[in-house]
Amino acid sequence: MISKSMEGIIMEQSTLKEYSGSATEHMELIFSKQRANFEADPYPSLEARRTKLHQLKKQIIRYQDALAAAINADFSSRSLDESKLLDLLGSVLEADHAIHHLRRWMRPSKRRTELLFLSNRLSVQYQPKGVVGVIVPWNFPVYLALGPLIAALAAGNRVMIKLPEITPNTNAMLRRMLAEVFNEDEVAVFGEEITDPARFTSLPFNHIVFTGSPAIGKVVMRAAAENLTPVTLELGGKSPTIVSRNYPLADAAKRITHGKATNSGQICVAPDYALVPKESIDEFVEAAKSSFIKMFGQNIENNENYTSIVNDRHLKRIQDILTDAQEKGALIIPCDTYSFDQQGRRMPVHIVLNCTPDMRIMKEELFGPILPVVAYDSLDDAITYVKSDERPLALYCFTHSSVERDRILRETHSGGVTINDWGWHVVNHDAPFGGIGNSGMGSYHGEEGFRELSHAKTVFIRHRFFPTQLFHPPYGTFLQKLAIRFFLKKGDPNIK
Question: Does 476 map to a domain?
Answer without folding.
Answer: no
